[in-house]
Design brief:
CATH topology of the largest domain: Oxidized Rhodanese, domain 1
Order of helices and strands: HHEHEHEHEHEH
CATH architecture of the largest domain: 3-Layer(aba) Sandwich
Strand content: 5-15%
Helix content: 40-55%
Number of domains: 2
CATH class of the largest domain: Alpha Beta
Distance between the termini: 63 Å
Strand order of the largest sheet: 1-5-4-2-3
Radius of gyration: 24 Å
Structural class: alpha/beta
Number of helices: 7
Length: 147
């Protein structure tokens, strides 16, 4: 039995050595940044103050809330449409691709994923609200509910 295991291990070892010498195989797995098309977070980010300026000047854009429906019902920014992130792949056609889109969530992580997804779906002008509605509540409108 021991000899059989020894032979099997030797076979595995020689396959490993042969594959390590094969120049067609990568020496290491790509990093996450290399494996997917990266979203330049600086280019696709908007601060709460800049969003407030856009709202005050009447600049046309779509405000997209990607939080869950119960979060939207609790508190949301005026004029926002609600499409929870989990439904975005099914419902992205509700957003006109030619319009500017500002995406927000609670703290900014889901909106980062949503902005990346919308960019991959062909939306050219997508920005995510830095810090989400929580940062908005701290910097712009301290009266709204924080959770």
């Amino acid at each position: 039995m021991f000899e059989y295991i020894k032979k099997a291990l030797r076979k595995i070892w020689w396959r490993f050595i042969a594959n390590a010498r094969d120049p067609k195989l990568p020496k290491a797995a790509p990093s996450v940044a290399e494996a997917i098309l990266p979203l330049d977070t600086d280019t696709y980010t908007i601060t709460p103050r800049h969003l407030k300026e856009m709202m005050n000047t009447g600049e046309p854009f779509i405000l997209l809330d990607v939080r869950e429906e119960w979060e939207y019902q609790m508190v949301h920014l005026e004029g926002a449409i609600s499409i929870p992130f989990g439904e975005l792949m099914k419902r992205f056609r509700e957003i006109k691709p030619g319009n500017k889109v500002v995406v927000y969530c609670h703290s900014g992580m889901r909106s980062l994923d949503a902005a990346f997804l919308l960019q991959q779906l062909g939306f050219k002008s997508v920005k995510r609200l830095l810090g989400g509605i929580d940062r908005w509540a701290q910097e712009i409108d301290t009266r709204i509910l924080r959770y």
